[in-house]
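Handout, page 2. Input:
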Amino acid sequence: MRNSESTARRALDGIRNIVYPAGHPHRAPSREEMLASLATLTRDDIVQFHRERFGGSSIILAIAGDVDAAEVATLVEKLFGDLPAGKRPVLTQPRTTPRAPISEVVTLRGKANVNLIYGAASGLARTDPDYEAALIANAAVGQDALTSRIGKRVRGAEGLSYSLASRFQMSDALDGIWTLDVAVAPANLKQALVSAREEFEKYCREGISEEELTVQQQHFAGDYQVKLGSNAGIAAALADAEKFGYGPAYLDAFPERIRKVTREQVNAAIKAHLHPDKLNLVVAGDLERIPD
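Output:
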């Protein structure tokens, strides 16, 4: 149960449990809930779960390299032909919408650092048409501690953080959350809270610049194409494309989709998925209250 002692994990779990209602698959179980669940788990439960989730319909197999397609197909049939097809699990859940913001403290005694996480329901799912625009929107504001707006100020100019990163998380099967995670020394917490939020709100007001858009387009398209330079990268990309229903053509399409994103589309994604007026805050560390 090491996660229960991690400031980063406890802060993230706090955001998840503010955003998601009881019973939602993305809600984080408490330590007590997890232990109670494990205590009642039976072999029959595990067998049933395996039967439901590990069927032929749930398997995606991608192979890349100097192979003979016919031989591979024969081998796959030999190894997996008897596997019951089953049904691929489909998660259905109403979209989660941002609510009035909440601030919480998770007190963990003896921790040398503090993790603060701003977060809110994003309303973004992986197959949404504005997914690429949202990726760029996030990257410019906080994805990289060295080049993003928040990173340049909080870590670069003010030297307040050990690490910093914003992400759209848990957006694969359902709509997820947007988070900004900043790790700081306790003495830097108050200023980091102010600076990170000011830069985020400013970005949401102003929108992305043409220069930022170009930089992020080059980054995402270039990074994706570099990963296709190895067999492992190609296989991973094929499996990912199939998982979301895009098919092999997506390996060529993704860089072009990124390059075609416009500034107007990114700014629309900012309005749709980043919510400065609905930001929740969870701070985890050796403290009892958030500094004023």
